[in-house]
Automatic annotation (TrEMBL):
Sorted UniProt keywords: Signal
Source species of the chain: Xylaria flabelliformis
Protein name (database record): VOC domain-containing protein
Signal peptide positions on this chain: 1-21
SUPFAM superfamilies: Glyoxalase/Bleomycin resistance protein/Dihydroxybiphenyl dioxygenase
PROSITE patterns, A to Z: VOC
Domain VOC: 177-298
Pfam families reported in the protein's UniProt record: Glyoxalase
C-alpha cells in the first residue's frame, strides 16, 4: 500500500469543496468521473488462490459492503459490479491521480449533499490492519489507479509489518493521531519560555495566535517529531490543574532521567527523584503553573511491578 498522511475525508463536504476550488466541470459538486470499471481480484497464498471480482452487497443499514465473488467474469447486467473513479484532477498520490471509488451511480438518486452514487471508505477494526470497505458511509478513502491499472489505496499504514495480536505501526491513523495538545497557563510568556528554554521544545512563532488588537493569547511549540502543543492563556484552568499531570513525555533510558534531574536542578526547577513506574522509570517536575510534567522511559524498562507511591508527584490515590 502507498503510505501517505491520513486520507479519509468527508465525501461531498470536504472533497466537494476541493472540486469547486479546482473549478470542476459544471461547477458545484462535480468531479471528473471515469468508468465503469470492474475490479478484478487475484491473489495466491501458500496452498490457495483467489481469482474473482468485487461487488457490493446491501446491508440493513444505509452503507453497502464490498465483497469478493469467485466469478470468472463480472456480471455485465448487474450494476453492483460497476465502479466509477471520481477525482478532481488536482490531487495526486505519488504521481497518480487520487480520488475515490464510487458505485451504484448511474440512475441513482442523489445523497443529501447532492452527489450521486456511493463512495468507498474504509473502517478499521481498532488497533488492527483489518479494514472493512463500506460504500455510502459518508466518507471516502483516497484511492486511484497506478500506471498498470492496479488500484491503490493512498493509505497510512504499512501492513507488511503487521503482527497479529499487536497494533499496526501507524503514525497517522485517524483516531490514534494526536493533532495537538493544549495546556493552560496563568502567564503565557513565562510558561512558554519554560517549555522552550528549560524543556527542549521548538518554538513555532508562525502558528501563534493573536487577538485583533495584537495581543498574544496562544503560543505553539513542537516536540520536533510532529506533535504540536499550544500554551493558552487561561488562569482559571491553570490554577484548577495545579498538581495534575496531564502530559507524560517519553525519554529513552534511566540514564537520560539522571541527566534530566541534574539539568533541572541547575535550572532551579522543582522535581522528584527517579521513581519506579509500572514498567519504566519516571521523573516528575513542575512547570511554572505547578502542573506536573512527567518524563518516562520507553526503551529501558523493568519487570512490571507495583509502582512507587507518591501523593505529590504521582497523584497516587490512597
Ligand atoms: C499447505 O498444505 C500442506 C499439506 O496440507 C501443509 O503441510 C502446509 O503447511 C500448507 N502450507 C501453507 C503455507 O499453508
Ligand atoms: C448482483 O450480484 C450480487 C452478487 O452476486 C447479488 O447478490 C445480487 O443479487 C445481484 N443483483 C441483481 C440485480 O442481480
Ligand atoms: C461522481 O462524479 C459525478 C460526475 O461529476 C457526479 O455526478 C457524482 O455525484 C459524483 N459522486 C460522488 C459520490 O462523488
Amino acid at each position: 500500500m502507498k503510505v501517505q498522511a491520513a486520507t479519509t475525508f468527508l465525501c461531498g463536504l470536504l472533497s466537494a469543496s476541493v472540486a469547486t476550488a479546482q473549478g470542476g466541470p459544471g461547477g458545484n459538486n462535480d468531479f471528473l468521473s471515469d468508468g465503469p470499471f470492474a475490479f478484478h481480484v487475484k491473489g495466491k497464498g501458500g496452498n490457495s488462490s483467489i481469482d474473482g471480482y468485487l461487488t457490493t452487497l446491501p446491508t440493513l443499514a444505509t452503507e453497502w459492503l464490498l465483497q469478493y465473488e469467485a466469478e470468472r467474469y463480472p456480471k455485465a447486467d448487474n450494476s453492483s459490479y460497476r465502479f466509477y473513479f471520481n477525482y478532481t484532477g488536482g490531487m495526486q498520490s505519488q504521481g497518480d491521480a487520487a480520488g475515490f471509488f464510487v458505485t451504484d451511480y448511474v440512475g441513482a438518486s442523489t445523497n443529501p449533499v447532492g452527489l450521486k452514487g456511493k463512495a468507498m471508505s474504509l473502517r478499521f477494526d481498532f488497533n488492527t490492519n483489518v479494514g472493512l470497505a463500506l460504500l455510502g458511509a459518508g466518507t471516502a478513502a483516497l484511492s486511484g489507479f497506478n500506471a498498470d491499472t492496479k488500484a491503490f489505496l493512498a493509505h497510512y499504514m504499512d501492513d507488511s509489518t503487521f503482527v497479529p495480536g499487536h497494533g499496526p505501526a501507524t503514525q497517522d491513523y485517524i483516531y490514534q493521531y494526536l493533532h495537538h495538545l493544549k495546556l493552560p497557563a496563568a502567564d503565557l510568556v513565562k510558561t512558554y519560555n519554560f517549555y522552550t528554554n528549560v524543556l527542549p521544545f521548538q518554538a513555532i512563532p508562525s502558528l501563534n495566535h493573536y487577538t485583533a488588537s495584537g495581543k498574544l493569547y496562544g503560543a505553539l511549540f513542537s516536540n520536533g517529531a510532529g506533535l504540536l502543543v499550544e500554551i493558552r492563556e487561561n488562569a482559571q484552568q491553570a490554577v484548577a490543574q495545579k498538581g495534575f499531570d496531564p502530559v507524560t513525555w517519553g525519554v529513552s533510558t534511566r540514564n537520560d532521567l539522571e541527566e534530566w534531574a541534574a539539568w533541572l536542578a541547575s535550572q532551579g526547577v522543582k522535581h522528584s527523584k527517579i521513581l519506579m513506574g509500572v514498567k519504566g522509570w519516571v521523573l516528575c517536575l513542575e512547570d511554572p503553573d505547578g502542573k506536573i510534567v512527567r518524563l518516562y522511559t520507553t526503551e529501558e524498562e523493568h519487570e512490571w511491578c507495583e509502582p512507587d507511591k507518591d501523593d505529590y508527584w504521582l497523584n497516587t490515590p490512597t
